[in-house]
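thought: user wants a sequence for this fold. calling inverse folding tool.
action: design(structure=
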């Protein structure tokens, strides 16, 4: 029996966010939208913070992200992750923010305001989740 850390945080999937993980599994980034006032929200929530409606649908994000901030996680290390483990906070053009791993870009290359793409890959949990990568084409 190994004594290495197994601290991979579990995904907490509920009836309120199941649609979002299902969309990610299919390779698209869902954004929840209130069908009464059309306010977008993320992370998923059962109720609109603006008008308190429980009615909602989803739109698909363009997945063109703009880096707002990031952090490099050094400790604690877990064998489930690759290091340096870089996590970014990005603005999406739809007007919401997303937190995801940044993959394939060295931390010293990162600059607030740079453009990143949201792509999908299998994560440490075995689930498919969004991640932030260098844009495939210059824009
Ligand atoms: Zn609303």
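)
observation: tool returned 139 residues.
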């Amino acid at each position: 029996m190994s004594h290495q850390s197994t601290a991979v945080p579990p995904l907490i999937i509920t009836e309120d966010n199941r649609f979002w993980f299902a969309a990610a599994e299919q390779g698209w980034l869902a954004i929840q939208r209130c069908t009464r006032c059309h306010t977008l929200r993320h992370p998923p929530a059962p109720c609109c913070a603006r008008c308190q409606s429980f009615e909602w649908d989803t739109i698909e994000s363009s997945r063109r992200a703009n880096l707002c901030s990031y952090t490099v996680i050094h400790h604690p290390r877990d064998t489930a992750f690759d290091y340096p483990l870089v996590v970014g906070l990005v603005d999406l053009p739809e007007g919401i923010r997303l937190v995801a791993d940044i993959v394939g870009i060295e931390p010293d290359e990162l600059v607030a305001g740079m453009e990143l793409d949201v792509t999908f890959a299998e994560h440490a949990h075995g689930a498919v989740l969004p991640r932030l990568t260098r844009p495939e084409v210059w824009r």
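thought: summarizing for user.
answer: Here is the designed sequence. The pocket of zinc ion is lined by residues 34, 36-37, 39, 48, 50-51, 53 (CB under 6 Å).
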